Amino acid sequence: MAYEAALQMHAAGDEVRLLILLDTPTPGYPKAIPRWKRYAPAAWNLLRAASPLALARETAAHCRMLIVNRRRPAQPVHDDLSAVGRILHSYVPQPLDVPMVQVLSSGHEVSTRVLEDARLGWRDFARTGFTVVHAPGDHPSFLLPPHV
User: Fold this and answer.
1) CA-closest candidate to residue 17, choices 1, 3, 5, 6
2) Are 100 and 70 in contact (CB under 8 A)?
3) In angstroms, rounded to a whole number, what is the distance separating the alpha carbons of residues 20 and 122?
4) Which element (helix H / strand E) includes 81?
């Protein structure tokens, strides 16, 4: 909602200096087709840095994620919560000419290899800069004492 609000405010001519997202996944991610060019170099780097077994594990995790995402909103929507999930999954953000900061909870591992973290998908829409800041704690606790 913050992203869409910033997008609409910017389009209306209001000044939006910075958009800060708090451990927020990009709706509808991962997007496999637009990222296909990243897979071969990522796999090669993983194979060189680790082992064939590590590559096989990462590839299997990626395939599982794609299968799970393909199965998502196929069922009819019967309640408000399901409707929200379906809307979020189908929402395609438009590019934004505002610097963005994504605050990530450090208790949740970020995958930057073959299977990318959906929280980093926002960088595809940030035309004027995307910065990641790591905060202590996991998702439920990083905005609570003692981490906040």
Assistant:
1) 6
2) no
3) 11
4) helix 80-90
Calculate the alpha carbon distances from 104 to 17, 74, 84 in Å: 20, 30, 23
Q: Mind listing the pLDDT tens digit for each residue in 41-76?
A: 766 776 777 777 777 777 777 676 666 655 544 444
Tokens representing residue 20 in the block? 């800060």
Is the Cβ–Cβ distance between 123 and 130 less than 8 Å? yes
Compute the distance between CA of residue 10 and CA of residue 31 in angstroms, rounded to an integer: 26
How many Å from the N-terminal Cα to the C-terminal Cα in the chain?
22
Distance CA(109)–CA(118), nearest Å, equals 12
Evaluate if pTM is beyond 0.70. no
